[in-house]
Amino acid sequence: MKNIMKQIIAEFHEEPIPQPHFRSVSLPELPANVRKAFVYIGMRRSGKTWALYQHMHNLLAKGIKKTQLLYINFEDDRLSGMSINELQFVLEAYWELYPEYTGDKTLHFFFDEIAEIEGWESFIRRLLDKEKMQLYLSGSSAKMLSKEIATNLRGRTLTREIFPLSFDEYARLQGLELEKILTTKHKSTCNHLINKYLTWGGFPEVIDADVMLHRELLQSYMDSVIYRDIIERHDVKNHTALKQLLLYCLQNPATLLSVNKLFNQFKSRGISVSKNSLYQYLSYFEDAYCLFEVPVYSFSLNKASLKPKKIYPVDTGLITAYSVKPGYNHAAILETEVFLYLRRRHEEIFYYQTAQGKEIDFFIIEPNGHMLLYQVSYQMGQESTKQREISAMEQAMAELHLSEGVIVTMDESEEISVTAGEIRIIPLQQLLTKI
Q: How far apart, in whole angstroms, are the C-alpha atoms of residue 336 and residue 323?
């Protein structure tokens, strides 16, 4: 195994590091007395490995030698069946190849998919305690959850969530820098890209794919999540119910999901599954970063648990890939994109129901206590629609004692004064670009 490891290390140092798409991932400079491992988590194919490559290029630009970097992908077939005891060969192979770096504090070790090795946490903990190199870890989210890392590594990690490309990252890839959007022509170009981005999403591999390949690739990603990150990891036996639940969520995004109703629907179709299993499967999908649940906001956790949750996929492209009627999901896609924009910035997001039962799509409480309300409406051209959305927002603002609420539309803009304060109606472009 040591010789295989030497071969893998030598290959990494001989071959050029791929030049990745730009990702907005920032890592802090740690004081000399602070030892942490940086952990990248996210759904498969969302760009975790490429985020590692980007940081490698950043280090090389700062004068770090390539031989001071080490990269191991533990999904390499040559490492199949590797045990926890054999992880020591990583160190032995590297020190034998580069004895001059023994004790060097400027080494950077990147371990991709290290969760493939049972018991990997103890190895990383030992490196943090005994060695001096900086560590970077990534893996399929369902095998490397932040809550598990926090338990097994006792707070020795700093986690970065890796989502599919944000619109900012997508626009940069298409040659449009958002901070330079000044003219009407630039704004028109931006709107064109937004519509394309909403339809196809931001998974790096599929942004230039044709319709059929786009659908095939994204569905293959979900198959990989189902089998590798859920069925294998959690030993799920009821494959049919698991797949049908995922299909239902992807074909009914941005809606309230009642497990009781879904249970009865499955029962009528001859799909045998318990309600508890459905709840468990939903938690598996969220652990794998492919679906997110948004609960209702309530001061009572018990009351909140009784209410249905809203379901959103990790990427709008998944809605297109699983749509029965492509082109008819505009409202759900817009709401999902607003959710993803907010989720990249806030870990906890709720929806809000007023005392009169009116719903606001997103309610956020920031760490400093500041509260935010966002409503999403694809079009507000009809007066009845406009009044319905304004009425719901005004009620929520009054109940929460807020002086501002935001309604996001595709292309409408207006400021409305109400008794509670100001309601800003903004187009999606303004939200995504801040212009």
A: 14
CB-based contact 50:136 (threshold 8 Å) = no
For range 51-73, the mean pLDDT: 96
Task: Report the C-alpha gap between 278 and 240 in whole angstroms.
Answer: 12
- 155's tokens: 């707070």
Domain ranges of the chain: 2-161, 346-435
Measured from the Cβ of residue 34, the count of other Cβ atoms closer than 10 Å reads 9
Total-model pTM: 0.93
pLDDT greater than 90 at residue 187: no
The single residue listed with the structure tokens 């931001």 is 202
Q: Look up residue 251 and give its two tokens.
A: 């074909």
CA distance 141 to 286: 10
pLDDT at site 171: 92
Cα distances (angstroms) measured from residue 323 to each of 15, 328, 376, 425: 41, 8, 21, 29
Pick the closest to residue 338 from 374, 365, 303, 372 (CA basis): 374
Q: Which class would CATH give 2-161?
A: alpha beta
- For the record, the structure tokens of 242 come out as 């698991």
Q: What is the pLDDT confidence band of residue 107, given thresholds at 50, 70 and 90?
A: very high
Q: Mean of the pLDDT values across residues 6-16?
A: 97
For residue 426, the cross-strand partners are: 408
Classify burial at 413, counting beta carbons within 10 Å of its beta carbon; exposed 0-12, middle 13-18, buried 19 or more.
exposed
Decide if 178 contacts 171 (C-beta within 8 A).
Answer: yes
Residue 1 structure tokens:
């195994």
